[in-house]
Amino acid sequence: MNLLDLVIAPAHAAAQPAAPGFGMSLLFPILLIAIMYFLMIRPQMKRAKEHKAMLEKLSRGDEVITNGGIAGTVTDLGDSFVTVEIADNVRIRVQKGAIANVLPKGTLKSA
Questions:
Q1: Which regions form coiled coils (predicted)?
Q2: Mean pLDDT of the residues in the chain
Q3: C-beta atoms surrounding 73 within 10 Å
Q4: pLDDT tens digit string along 46-100?
Q5: DSSP code per residue over 27-62
């Protein structure tokens, strides 16, 4: 017995648990990616597709609400900008992507 054994206990070989197989070690990350796809990525892609379709159907006279909460009527359409009339003779230009929702006709009159 040497002096170091008195200060530090000697390491004993412990039985190691059986390592999971290669297939099992890959199964967990693949399963996580699949769960993330179905719970996060796929619904987000679906919402983006619906939003793009809504913007393509946008026309003059549609009542819209922007991401900032401004409601108005579309008076002019461009490639990337939309002119929205928010009050009599008060018009603002917003990016098409800033249009959050198209409201049913007559919503602004009743509000």
A1: none
A2: 86
A3: 17
A4: 999 999 999 999 999 999 999 999 999 999 999 999 999 999 999 999 999 999 9
A5: HHHHHHHHHHIIIIIHHHHHHHHHHHHHHHH--TT-
Positive/negative CA dihedral, 58, 63, 64, 70: positive
Considering the four listed CATH numbers 2.40.37.10, 2.30.30.60, 2.120.10.70, 3.40.710.10, the one that applies to the domain covering 30-110 is: 2.30.30.60
**What length does the chain have?**
111
Exposed e or buried b per residue across 83-109, where buried means at least 16 C-beta atoms within 10 angstroms of its C-beta: bbeeeeeeeeebeeeebbebbeeeebe
CB atoms near residue 58 (< 10 Å)? 14
Q: Residue range 36-53: average pLDDT?
A: 94
Amino acid at 102: V
> What is the separation of C-alpha 69 from the centre of its chain, rounded to a whole number of angstroms?
19
Phi, psi of 71 (to 5 degrees): -105, 140
pLDDT at residue number 10: 59
